[in-house]
Amino acid sequence: MAKGKDIRITVILECTSCDKKSVNKESRGISRYITQKNRHNTPSRLELRKFCPFCCKHTIHAEIKK
């Protein structure tokens, strides 16, 4: 059995293009998704292509700090 830290952790994915637009106040919000990742298989930051309802297109969503 696993000792100490859990192998699967919950991560938050945030739209990278909305993040850039929010500085200019053009966007209505920032799209975020919650998912899980396996620490052993993906030790680096997770990036997935997901649909952003604020951009109305598929964009790259990157893992953010909690």
Comma- or semicolon-separated keywords:
mainly beta; 66 residues; single chain; elongated; ribonucleoprotein
Verbal overview:
Belongs to the bacterial ribosomal protein bL33 family. One of its GO terms (biological process) is translation. It comes from Cicer arietinum (Chickpea). It is found in: Plastid, Chloroplast. The chain has 66 residues and is mainly beta. The chain has a domain at 8-42. It is built from 1 helix and 4 strands, in the order βαβββ. A 4-stranded antiparallel β-sheet has the order 2-1-4-3. β3 (47-52) and β4 form a beta hairpin. The radius of gyration is 14 Å and the shape is elongated. The model has no long low-confidence stretch (mean pLDDT 84).
What's the count of strands? 4
Number of helices: 1
Distance between the termini: 26 Å
The largest β sheet comes out as: 4 strands, antiparallel
The strands making up the biggest β-sheet line up spatially as 2-1-4-3
Given as residue ranges, the uncertain stretches (5+ residues, pLDDT < 50) are none
% residues in beta strands: 35-45%
Rg over CA atoms, rounded to whole Å, is: 14 Å
Q: Summarize model confidence as the mean pLDDT.
A: 84
Categorize the overall geometry: elongated
Helix content: 10-25%
Please write the string of helix (H) and strand (E) elements: EHEEE
Return the structural class: mainly beta
